[in-house]
UniProtKB/TrEMBL annotation:
Descriptive protein name: CbtA family protein
InterPro entries, A to Z: CbtA_put
TM regions (residue ranges): 65-88, 100-117, 137-157, 169-188, 208-229
Organism: Streptomyces sp. NBC_00060
Keywords noted in UniProt: Membrane, Transmembrane, Transmembrane helix
Keyword set includes Transmembrane helix: yes
Length: 257
């Protein structure tokens, strides 16, 4: 794949990230913000001192939320587009759409779901301010381990494939990944700073909303970017009949090399 293709895919990835960010913003506003408001109300009701707000809650839930989600979407879209450039033609004989779907699914799993299962999202009223640095470091460490182990599992699967076959190699690599993640879960310290009187249903709904936002972001990116990438790399295949798919896969796979 030449530098012009990489640059074009990077731009398309950022645009797809922006589009996915808009979808995630809607989900965040509809599902997430009511839970954040409820958590803040809980904090206000139990706080002995109330600090002065630097930014109003209205600004935080509108302009602040939009800025954060959209910038996040654009940044991740660019990074995912570069990952797509590396993956295309190297993880199997898949076309641009399928490769974009695999990259999105892998990113959702490794960057969010795996760390989320160890250190789930909490509303703003949960957590000791004195431990925020430690909690942030542990969360990013879990992300780094998840991504590193996922990449290692892919490499392991490719090396085992000639001896075990694609299916058995994939199963073996996946099992190795799960075992390694399990060990990381076991050895990394747990963090549980949820107040005993915090409403369990509110906590559950907040975490589901956080998961829904990420699912929307990555699903939206995969669909939009897959379409844009296919139009760039295989423009004829984007409008061709299904029986032309095999040719498109071969041509785009060759372009990746």
């Amino acid at each position: 794949m030449n530098s012009l293709h990489v640059r074009a895919l990077l731009v398309r990835g950022m645009l797809a990230g922006l589009a996915a960010g808009l979808l995630a913003l809607i989900v965040a506003y509809v599902l997430g913000e009511p839970r954040v408001d409820a958590a803040i109300d809980f904090e206000d009701a139990h706080a002995h001192e109330h600090g002065e707000e630097v930014f109003s809650r209205t600004l935080q839930s509108t302009g602040g939320l939009a800025t954060g989600v959209l910038v996040f979407g654009v940044a991740l879209g660019g990074i995912a587009a570069l990952a797509f450039c590396v993956a295309l033609g190297r993880i199997g004989r898949f076309g641009p759409r399928a490769t974009a779907a695999f990259v999105s699914l892998g990113a959702l799993a490794t960057v969010y779901v795996v760390p989320f299962l160890k250190y789930p999202a909490n509303p703003p009223s949960i957590g000791d301010p004195d431990t925020i640095g430690k909690r942030t470091a542990l969360y990013f460490l879990m992300i780094a381990l998840s991504v590193l182990l996922a990449v290692s599992a892919v490499i392991l699967g490719k090396r085992l494939a000639p001896r075990l076959g694609n299916w058995n190699a994939t199963v073996a690599a996946s099992a190795a990944f799960l075992v390694a993640i399990g060990l990381a879960y076991a050895f990394l310290p747990a963090v549980n700073e949820v107040p005993k009187d915090f409403p369990a249903m509110l906590l559950w709904k907040f975490r589901l909303a956080a998961l829904a936002i990420q699912l929307t972001l990555w699903a939206g990116f995969g669909l939009v970017f897959g379409h844009l990438a296919e139009r760039l790399l295989a423009p004829k295949a984007a409008t061709a009949e299904p029986r032309g798919t095999g040719t498109a896969v071969d041509s785009t796979t060759a372009a990746a090399h």
